[in-house]
Amino acid sequence: MRVTIFGTGYVGLVTGACLAEVGNDVICVDVDADKIERLNHGEIPIYEPGLEMIVTRNHQAGRLQFTTDAASAVDHGEVQFIAVGTPPDEDGSADLQYVLAVADTIATHMNDYTVVVDKSTVPVGTADRVSQAVAQRLTARGVDIPFAVVSNPEFLKEGAAVEDFMKPERVVIGSDDEQALEVLRALYSPFNRNHDRLITMDVRSAELTKYAANAMLATKISFMNELANIADRVGADIERVRVGIGSDPRIGYHFIYPGAGYGGSCFPKDVQALGRTAQQVGYEPALLNAVETVNDRQKGYVFEQIQSHYNGNLKGCCFALWGLAFKPNTDDMREAASRRLMEALWAEGAQVQAFDPKALEETQRIYKDQSQLTLCETAEAALEGADALVIMTEWNVFRSPDFGHIQDTLAAPVIFDGRNLYDPVDMAEMGFRYYCIGRPSID
Ligand code: NAD
């Protein structure tokens, strides 16, 4: 099938590469000329496990092309995917300007029946707005070309995006247009061989399903963080509580890890946007508001622990920071808990020596003029001359470090662990002052 994809970010590039991988002829179009040039030179602008290999393979085979030329890209595709960003607007609602701009571009150049697929995460009612934008442009052109707008929200996880796309748990398609549904059924059939993973529904339900999924996951995290803070105060160990409740199949072990708060490009903005949608229809989203409040507080928690350990005097302190990305296996720094921590430390006059296996380049791009930040090529280098170690991302490589070396290198054996990677008893036995989340600290 001939497919056009607008947006070559985490979602668009993965979608394009995976659809090309199963034999489709894909053109990815982006307004970012620099990104397109890099892609055309074989450079992958983001880190995502397994992505480079399939992009390179399909690009070389001619099944995956990159362009800034929207006219030829629209002309190419029977199916046009919208996979551009939907960042938060000033009031927290999703900013649809990029989605609607793409709808207009598609309508400006399309000549035959076109299936417009909305893959970006968008509020309920957006498919109607996309339809209106397309219809308006067609009317302005004085042409009458049939089209359908389908909602096909994306559920891939950064860090496992290729795997998730190739072996999806579900593919949600919202449409009442039988012809469009057939096109998407055919497009997704290579990913649907083992058992039927296609869930079809009306457009509005599909749009809401994406927000419901992210809001549910964010709620689980905030719930566990709330419990961790209670555990902390009553002398209980949240990790034991976690295992205790996870054993109930109605609760399950997934996604109930306490930590330094959720970040990333999706949970914070999607919880906010769903809340604004609720308010716009006259419903006060009490639970969603609480999920956000708890997360916001949690993102400041490690900093509070640090401040309290140093009696509020952080000026001149130097911290080794392991983990910058908002979660492991990605270079994405959007809304990362590490950013909030670093900015708070800098405001107090502290220095940060940071290491991350994949996010150093992105950190450099964001904080290029920050003199209180040193980016280190190894985890060990970050420890040199530091007063304490802080862990903000649970990369595997941090799980079993050389504790003797950490102790010998830091000015004092102090670790602030925002991801509960180690056992507090072991840490105390080794002589560390170990701060973690929701577990009794042992002196
Ligand atoms: P991103 O910011 O990584 O990429 C968006 C891309 O769209 C950018 O390269 C930008 O230049 C491009 N773009 C903007 N306007 C354009 C236009 N008019 N024409 C062509 N390209 C244009 O975003 P992302 O993380 O891939 O997310 C895209 C959407 O998918 C968002 O709605 C997001 O909420 C949703 N989503 C993201 C994830 C994720 O894990 N990142 C998962 C599921 C859904």
Automatic annotation (TrEMBL):
Instruction: Specify whether NAD is a keyword of the entry.
Output: yes
Broadest EC class assigned to this enzyme: oxidoreductase
* Positions contributing to substrate binding: 155-158, 210, 255-259, 263, 327
* Protein's GO biological process: polysaccharide biosynthetic process; UDP-glucuronate biosynthetic process
What pathway does this protein act in? Nucleotide-sugar biosynthesis; UDP-alpha-D-glucuronate biosynthesis; UDP-alpha-D-glucuronate from UDP-alpha-D-glucose: step 1/1
Q: Which domain of life is it from?
A: Bacteria
Q: Which residues bind NAD(+)?
A: 30, 35, 86, 121, 158, 269, 334
Membrane-traversing stretches:
none
The EC number on file is 1.1.1.22
Gene Ontology MF terms? NAD binding; UDP-glucose 6-dehydrogenase activity
Q: Give the reactions, separated by semicolons, that this protein catalyses.
A: UDP-alpha-D-glucose + 2 NAD(+) + H2O = UDP-alpha-D-glucuronate + 2 NADH + 3 H(+)
**Domain UDP-glucose/GDP-mannose dehydrogenase C-terminal, residue spans:** 320-424
Active-site residues, record numbering mapped to chain: 266
Report keywords, A-Z: NAD, Oxidoreductase
Checking InterPro entries in the record gives: 6-PGluconate_DH-like_C_sf, NAD(P)-bd_dom_sf, UDP-Glc/GDP-Man, UDP-Glc/GDP-Man_DH_C, UDP-Glc/GDP-Man_DH_C_sf, UDP-Glc/GDP-Man_DH_dimer, UDP-Glc/GDP-Man_DH_N, UDPglc_DH_bac
Q: Which Gene3D superfamilies match?
A: Cytochrome c1, transmembrane anchor, C-terminal (1.20.5.100), NAD(P)-binding Rossmann-like Domain (3.40.50.720)
What is the similarity comment for this entry? Belongs to the UDP-glucose/GDP-mannose dehydrogenase family.
Q: What is this protein called?
A: UDP-glucose 6-dehydrogenase
Protein species of origin: Spiribacter salilacus
